[in-house]
Amino acid sequence: MLHNLLVVDYGLGHPGSVHDAWAFQGTHIASRPGDLIPEDHWTWADSAYPTEEWCAVPFKKPKGRRLSHNQNLYNKYLSKVRVRVEHAFAALKGRFQSLHELCLKIRNERDVKVAVYWVMCCIILHNMVIHFEEEMVGIVKPSSRWAMEEGSGQQDGDMVMIGEPVGTPGQ
Length: 171
Description:
Blueprint: E1 7-10, H1 20-24, H2 28-31, E2 43-44, E3 55-56, H3 69-95, H4 109-135, H5 144-151, E4 160-162
Parallel strand pairs: 2-3
Antiparallel strand pairs: 1-4
Helix pairs in contact: 3-5
């Protein structure tokens, strides 16, 4: 079954120049991963994120050496799984076109709060649509594929941790 594209944690309000790993430190999942990630599961991330028991990151090439065949295979599989993060962005932006380019002037702290609440509301509504459609299977046509198609083509570096953990226990 395809991942459901739920957004379970996010970091909002950081300037665009803040590195993903720095913004990640302020999230709930970074400080209390057990609240969001079941035992024997983990989340998938890129090499900017910390190597933790609950956070699977790609192997980095050692200086002057090569990765082993198994490490390269792992990295290839990891990159395929991480594509689901891009699917979540696409679905979120497909449902809420305002997220492609939030047209708000940011002049002060209040304006930042308005932008943060705007994005937060879109994330909450996105998750509500997914839950509603899961409960109404066979009655309501799922919109995730449509939303991903509507939102595709807009690449950015926002950090979003998505859905229920991918994989099986012990992976």
